[in-house]
Amino acid sequence: MPHIPQAVPAAGASTPPDAPAAPLLSVVVPVRNEAPNIAPLVAEIEAALPGVPHEIVYVDDGSSDDTPMALRKAAAAAPLRHLRHRASCGQSAAVVTGVKAARGRWIATLDGDGQNDPADIPKLLARAQAEGGAILVAGHRVTRRDSWVKRRSSRVANRVRARLLGDATPDTGCGLKVFPRALFLELPHFDHMHRFLPALVLRQGGRVVSEPVNHRPRLRGQSNYGTLDRLLVSLFDLVGMVWLQRRWRRPEVEPEG
Known about the structure:
By secondary structure, this protein is α/β, with parallel strands linked by helices. It is 37% helix and 18% strand. The chain has an 8-stranded mixed beta sheet, sandwiched between helices. Helix 2 links the parallel strand 3 (54-61) and strand 4.
C-alpha cells in the first residue's frame, strides 16, 4: 500500500482550544491549481448549507499557482480550513488528508473545478441520513457537461468496471459523494482509490446508492487530467482493484456465548 505523505497545515488551518463543537458535515475539496475557482465554489457551498452545521476542508495538493492565497482569503469569510501537500500526491491522497482532518460525522466530497453543484449536497446528505449505517451516496451525472471524448471514454470505463467489480454504480467518476467519516477511515487507502469508492465500500460490508445530480461545464482554469492518461491509469488500477477484492473475505463475527 503506497505511503500517503502527511499534509502541512496552511496558515489559519489549526484549530484553537476553544473551537466550537464538531459540525454535522465536513465538505472535503481536493484542489490543485484551481485559484480562480476557490472563491466562487466556497460561496456556493455556503449558500447550499445555510441550516446545516458544517465546515469546509480544502486540501491543496501542491499547487503552483495562487491557490494558497485564494484559500487564505476565502477562510476569512467562511468556516474553511485548509491544508497543503508540499508536493503533489494525487487526488486520492488529498481526499484522505481532508477526511482525516475533518471533524464532521458525515463527509461530502466535491471536485474543486466547479463542475459539481454544491446545491446537490443537502439531497445526498438527507439520503445518507435516511439510509443510515455504512452507506455511500454517490452522485450520478445524468447529463454530463464534458466533451464527447470524455463522455464516451467514461461510459466505456464505467461498463467495464461495473462488469468486473459488480459495484452497481452508474457513475463512480462523479466527485460528489456523501458517506460517514468512520466508514471511509476503515477503507484501504491507495493512489486513485477515489475512483473505486463504491467497490471499496461494498467490500467493507457497506451499501451504495446513487442519486442524480447536476453537472456543469468548467468555466475557469484547466483540467489536471488528460483523457488518454486517465484511461490508461484507470485500466491499470482496475486490475489492482480486482486483485484486492479477491484477496479479502469479510469475516462474520459471532457474538460470545
